[in-house]
Amino acid sequence: MEALATLPWGQLIVNGLALGSLYALAAFGLVLIYKITDIINFAQGELGMVSAFVAFFLITAFQLPFILAFILTLVFAGILGALVERFIVRPVENTSPLNPVILTVGIGVLLVGLAGTLWGYETRPFPAPISGPALRLAGLVLSRINALILVVMAVLMIGLYLFFRYTLVGVAMRAVAQNQVAARLMGISVGRIKALGWAVGTALAAVTGIFIAPLNYLDPNMMGDVILYAFAAAVLGGVTSLPGSVVGGLLLGIISSVAGFFAPQLRTTIAFAIIVLVLVIRPRGLLGGRTVKKV
Amino acid sequence: MGRSLAAAWPWLLLVAVALALPALLALIPGLASGYVLYLVALAFIYAIVALGLNLLIGYAGQFSLGQAGFMAIGAYVAAILATAWGWPFALTLPAAAIVSAAVGYLLGLPALRLTGPYLAVVTLGFGLAVPQLIIWQDTWTGGSSGLHSIPPADVLGVPFATDSQFYYVALVAVALLTLFAARLVKSRTGRAFIAIRDSELAAQAMGVSLIRYKTLAFAVSAAYAGVAGCLYAYLLKGIGPEDFTLFLSIEFLTMVVVGGLGAIEGSLLGAAVLTALPNVLTRLPLVEEYKNLYVLVFGVILILTVIFMPRGIAGAWRSYRARRVKAPEMAGQPSVVKG
CA B202 to CA A92: how far, in whole Å? Predict the structure, then answer.
């Protein structure tokens, strides 16, 4: 127990929140896609990985400043997500509950294979989006990139909140998530909203990819660990709750950061254990509402 | 009698070819028949995993991305018992099956609380966690360097040491487990699986216990993977945690989907096609330099199959036959999967 007291808790929590922001963004995308299309997107990590590669080439080959590359990559990811939904997922949407899931697994494998064939499997360093000395606050160290991640996360979350709360499209997306038939009767183009849901979800995965890459490295398998944590975050937050995914992501970031300090060799196992524990103790997650069973 | 014989002759032919394969290969000059037999034995082993996974996905309607984890458990149980405790093959094989089945049963329990595809997340995590736990528990498992010098399999005092000899062990195993799966899906248990797949609500209303049959489906598919893991350990004589990756689990899923969900013969076909594929691809002249191209090809095959041939090769063959002889043979296939 002494070991617990001597842990640099404050520092681990600060680092964990930054990492957790990235899990939260990926988890938010997962939950959004799940709520709107009833599909668990197993290609979420790989979509983020491909986007990180696109950002990498925009920055290194085209010498674009980070902010411009970031925005262009989000646009690319949005278009990619919408195209995947429209032309790959939608044709099998109503065939069986399993087919779309198997399909997203296939899309993930395809993207890894594509990235590996085009760009190789060797790991590359990703240029840091921001440089300079770390910030120091009350004895805690906050690196510039972690600070940037926290700012990006906050801006995106406020933006998404306003979007879903006040814009017509945002309300339409919530309507489709709640009841597709009623939404269609209200004159909402459900197909377009679904494509948009995938676009936003994929763009969020891209944000995770772009910021995980400079923290770790860039390679076709870079998202394996990250995406399991994002899944765990979604389950912890309660599968169908968007705020829950954010809370779950931040919590898992802290857990992952502490786990990385204690037992770095068991990080994946810990994410798995959390998923199982949540399901055994509280299957609806922290913020999940009642599950309504569709027959 | 005549009809059942007519239905059985392709299978009899298959068994005859399989038995005679070592002799046939030896006739081809310049061919390393040992290596070919090793590959075919590997395809048999993968087919066993695919059979189990098909029972789980194609019949019981539950999803798994963690079969490589069950296979790893079977392989390590057999390897540890054989090397450290000197257990014979006749005991390590059932031990591997029982331990894997027990883990599968336990994993099925939290899965009961999950409706729909979130189950896949649990199995995904399981498949990723097992190799990590194997590396962590290095006193038993040898950590990341793995376990080596596994003694040859020994059946009733007869050693099956070389690849060409062990080929027969794998052949008998895949034949028996195919028969078992074919019997199982026609039994009360198999009908319960299919009922759960088609509608959990309706199955419950008919008195099918979801707890019992969902966990049973997990346990059976895990036992198949465990047996396959044990055979894998004896075939390769050495195993490591990197043998059982997430990609292997996805390969098994691809085999089942491409072969045909809910069709026993489909799993055999799928395993044969997809074990051959990487070996053929890496030998083609143009493709040679892209040695990981098969990852891309696997993804493309999986996507195209789901979109254009959701019943897989077996389903396409069955509907072709059904159109020709007008005898509906589609009863075993998922009714929810539409072409």
Answer: 24
